[in-house]
Amino acid sequence: MAINRTNTASKERLLYTVIGDAVNVAARLETLTKEYPEYTILINDSTASAIADYHGIVLKSLGEIKVKGRQKSVEVYAVLDWKKEEILVVTSI
After folding, report:
1. E strands along the chain, which residues?
2. Tens digit of each residue's pLDDT (9 = 90 or more) over 37-53
3. Which end of the chain is less enclosed by CB atoms within 10 A, N or C?
4. Which of 83, 19, 76 is nearest to 45 (CA)?
5. What pLDDT score was predicted for residue 22?
6. What Å distances lie between residue 81 and 32, 41, 61, 78, CA to CA?
7. Dihedral through CA 55, CA 65, CA 35, CA 54, nearest 10?
8. How far apart are CA 79 and CA 33, in angstroms?
9. CA–CA gap between residue 69 and residue 45 (Å, rounded)
10. Which pTM was predicted?
11. Average pLDDT for residues 62-72, to the nearest whole number?
């Protein structure tokens, strides 16, 4: 997976854009949340694989979904729940 950074403006004003498959897929998943309003977080299969060892995360497969800009469908998962660890705050008196 390649991500390229390119300058899209003049020397006076540098404006950088990140272009790549990962960024494109992330943007498309964000757009899909409008079609699946019951799920606030959608991830693809590579992200699901990366977090598989975190046992507190509950995922639901939504199947393969065709997204704009890709020839191949993307396996999409909804994040249903995750373990919320309480943070103990200790203050001195």
Report:
1. 3-7, 16-20, 42-44, 57-65, 74-82
2. 999 999 999 999 988 88
3. C
4. 76
5. 82
6. 19, 10, 13, 9
7. 10
8. 12
9. 17
10. 0.68
11. 90
